[in-house]
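Shipment paperwork, digital attachment
Item: protein structure file
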Amino acid sequence: MKKIYFIFLSIFVTFACVFTPSSVTPTPALTNTNTNTPQPTFTPVTPTLTFTLTPTLIGVRTQTSTPDVTQTSTLSSVTPLALIPINTATEIFNMQGFVFVNVSATEFYKNRECEPSFVKITAQAGLPDTAYVLLFTRFKSLTAERVSRWTKFDMYTIGAGTYVYDVYSDEMLEDAYFQNAWLEYQIVATNVSGKEIGRTDIFKEKVKMSTCVPTPESALPTVKP
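Attachment content:
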């Protein structure tokens, strides 16, 4: 009896093991999935450009943070090149033995009644062995080639090789024959023995002598108390 019971128990257990579901989860089989990879395209990707139109103003200067340099215009006495005459002869003046010659005025008057009644001529000798400086003057007509004889004056030194002389018309030869004229002059330098060592050219049309016309005020006699 026990043997039969044991047999039925064994059959029941075996049947339970066959039909009882397993708790192990089976691993799913790998499934090949074909994923389409996008092919590269040859069309360039152009970004969207945004333009801001800035008008360009013709004739308007662009303002900058650096201030403009203001140049003060200076009047110049230089003649523009366009105004210089072409092939203009340049005066060449001989000043042998002298550094410079100056005059105090370009016009003076006869007879010492009008001012200035004389012209001061100044010359600076440039040779160290200069002992004497002679001034020669003459009148020349304003309208003709007529000239007077030369008058010689001994210029006196004021030092540093500088010589001066005040020329009055009534001290010159033939003053009575000229009322309005040019005063022409020439300067000569000599050494201690009187030998000429320097001579300028003749200065022409530099100084004018005019007739003095007294005014009524200047003609009145001087009243003394």
